[in-house]
């Protein structure tokens, strides 16, 4: 079953794709929580990091490297940014498709939430 993210990546649903390669796409979050709020999404449908398998380790590393690359291109690497991966409803995961939130452009507090 295709997820919302898969439909955006395929062009079935409108969405802003900031970057794309053969393994992932970076989408602008429609419910932005920071001046820069992007989602790094694998093209392979993996429900969550908890559902990832050993054979997914390359794509998992690729997501983080892509997030760092996009942060540099967006001009937020120097001042700092936050990467977040939510797992499950209680953590705020609303689309059952692994994605890394890339947030920047403002100061963040700790602990989050």
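Q: What amino acid sequence fits the structure above?
A:
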């Amino acid at each position: 079953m295709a997820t919302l993210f898969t439909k955006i990546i395929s062009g079935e649903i409108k969405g802003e794709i900031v970057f794309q390669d053969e393994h992932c796409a970076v989408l602008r979050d429609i419910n932005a929580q920071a001046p820069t709020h992007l989602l790094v999404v694998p093209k392979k449908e993996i429900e969550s990091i908890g559902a990832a398998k050993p054979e997914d380790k390359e794509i998992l590393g690729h997501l983080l490297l892509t997030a760092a690359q996009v942060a540099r291109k967006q001009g937020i690497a120097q001042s700092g940014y936050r990467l977040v991966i939510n797992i499950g409803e209680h953590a705020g995961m609303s689309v059952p498709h692994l994605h890394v939130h890339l947030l920047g452009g403002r100061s963040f507090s700790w602990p989050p939430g």
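Q: And what stands out in the fold?
A: Residues 57 and 63 are 10 Å apart (CA to CA).
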